[in-house]
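User: Here's a structure from my thesis project, written as structure tokens. My advisor, Dr. K., wants to see whether a designed sequence matches the one we expressed. Can you design one independently, without my sequence as a hint?
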């Protein structure tokens, strides 16, 4: 592994090259069912532990996404130094506090410094970090830091907006509240005009978020 690959793995954070423990999850789900007074052996629940284990395998696949294989050499030398924006990237994640979903959109921009990344890779980067137990603030920063480490661009900007089920169905029960987080690195932090250009572009976004 060369220094560049090592840096990319470090930027990916929490990458684990192993599968989930399906048996342990199934056993734990059975205990939860018993704990709430249900019968894990009744017809409607007998396969629930297995289904939940497979669900977590899919929803938390980001822990096991190999960042080098994901990028797959899709970095290209290009003589282009204007803003690149990929907006309205749909994502879903699980809040690490209650393990309830939050879903939303990520908007990502960067200003190349001699290299660009294949278009499909930016949504895959968002997926890699969202498909983990997360808090939105950390996820936003992780996306920005990873792209910054991968491309060494002039600047990176990430804005994430999401609806959180944990605040909609429990606690404060505010159905229409949403959360917006941002990370501005390099030129996007130091150049107000550049930052405003990015924010103006993403303000012309898609339909409002909804579950």
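Assistant: Designed independently from the structure alone:
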């Amino acid at each position: 592994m060369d220094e560049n690959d090592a840096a990319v793995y470090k930027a990916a954070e929490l990458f684990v090259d192993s599968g989930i423990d399906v048996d342990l999850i199934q056993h734990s789900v059975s205990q939860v069912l018993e704990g709430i007074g249900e019968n894990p052996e009744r017809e409607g629940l007998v396969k629930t532990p297995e289904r939940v284990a497979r669900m977590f395998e899919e929803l938390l696949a980001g822990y096991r996404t190999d960042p080098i294989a994901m990028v797959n050499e899709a970095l290209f030398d290009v003589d282009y130094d204007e803003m690149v924006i990929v907006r309205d990237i749909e994502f879903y994640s699980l809040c690490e506090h209650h393990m309830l979903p939050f879903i939303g959109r990520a908007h990502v921009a960067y200003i190349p410094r001699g290299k660009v990344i294949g278009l499909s890779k930016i949504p895959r980067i968002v997926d890699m970090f969202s498909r983990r137990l997360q808090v939105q603030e950390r996820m936003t920063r992780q996306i920005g830091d990873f792209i910054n480490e991968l491309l060494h661009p002039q600047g990176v900007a990430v804005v994430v907006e999401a609806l959180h089920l944990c605040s909609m169905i429990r606690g404060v029960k505010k159905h229409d509240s949403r959360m917006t987080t941002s990370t501005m690195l390099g030129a996007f932090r130091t150049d107000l005009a550049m930052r405003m250009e990015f924010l103006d572009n993403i303000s012309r976004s898609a339909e409002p978020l909804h579950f």
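When you compare it with your expressed construct, this may help: The first helix runs from residue 3 to 12.
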